[in-house]
Amino acid sequence: MTICQGHRFIYNTININNMKIPFSPPYIDESVINEVVDSLRSGWITTGPKVKALEAEAMKLTGAKAALGVNSWTSGTLMMLRWLGVGPDDEVIIPAYTYCATAMAVLWAGAKVVMVDSGKDFNLSVDALRKAITPHTKAIIPVDIAGFPCDYDAIMSLVSEPAVKAMFKPASDVQRQLGRILVLNDSAHSLGARYHDNSNGIYTDITVFSLHAVKNITTAEGGIVCFNMPEPFDNEELYKQMRLMTLNCQTKDAFTKSQAGGWRYDIVGKGMKINMADVNAAIGLAQIRQYDRLLAERKRIYQAYDKAFSKLPWAILPPSHQGDMETSYHVYPLRIKGFTEEQRDAMITKIARHEVAVNVHFVPLPMLTYYKELGYDINDYPRAYEHYAHEISLPVYPQLDDEKVEFVIKSVVNAYETIAGKKGE
Fold this sequence. Notes:
Layout: E1 2-5, E2 8-11, H1 30-42, H2 49-62, E3 66-70, H3 73-84, E4 91-95, H4 100-108, E5 112-116, H5 126-132, E6 137-140, H6 152-160, H7 162-167, H8 173-178, E7 182-186, E8 194-195, E9 198-199, E10 206-210, E11 223-227, H9 235-246, H10 254-257, H11 278-288, H12 291-309, E12 315-316, E13 321-322, E14 325-326, E15 332-336, H13 341-353, H14 369-373, H15 382-389, E16 391-394, H16 402-419
Parallel strand pairs: 4-5, 4-6, 6-7, 7-10
Antiparallel strand pairs: 1-2, 3-11, 8-9, 10-11, 12-15, 13-14, 15-16
């Protein structure tokens, strides 16, 4: 039962019996199980027809010109940076407020990571991005935090400005052909997000989605690389080239090579081994075919959180709709107005005592030991720190029924009022 007192809510004692709420369990129904069993019974479990079917579904959902299944977001992004030809003298701009994989892909590609601060929402500041561009900038990786799209139009317009293009110094054949900075969007969280009333995945040169176990659509581990390169690039040919790259640049995949008489193959380049397997693709294939329904369930939960927290003066709601932009409802990044980082942490501890799992997205990269040792300083990114220090990610997934959603809300409010010293007023 909820009792309204002025502008805040007081909840009765929370009954925690048999109400354990994990943060992000995968969605596994009979259709997923049947698709995986079909793969197992087929006798073919590595890259084959299930991967191709998942790629086709990803193209259908996003409108991308081509889509390639890989074994992770990180490896897919690393592959594309290698294709771009970045090296030690090159810079790739990323937000300071992101998961470490965004930076790791750049570092493993051999380039320098340049971090920029956040804007008013969790995503990178386009103004900060503009100031960070130098003649060494070869790529920008904006990140759709929690599933809310970046301002793709502003970013693509920026890299196309005559003055910015004139500053660009290509160092590879691909860079010369493109003639400007590449924009590779980190859409790890945002499969199904909307931009200009279309699904994202078509508004930057390259878009990479994650299909990790906690994502809206999962293949346990995996990712999808969407190709939308401008002319004169041929995206279907680029898909074929990158598919070869994922298989050690072997001219025949294992499925083709295993056919009678098809054993002979060649290695035609310095490849990687980052292909997606059919047994993994089967999980995502079953999920993506019902994604409209699954996304609607996520939206239901988001709206319930919005309705409850919008009435509380200490709650800063995350963006969900802005004009024709809409989140993918991946997680609910609630911010606590006026709390310190330590109070936020205490609040999380209190919520956990109710056996509700919450999270934080993300610890800014300059606060992590490895990046601090590389010389990055969180004091250079005050907006990123501010977002982080106040943020608690609440669970969003189709299995959360209304009763569980209400329990999460009660746990959060109870924790706030305890830490703020308002309990029982």
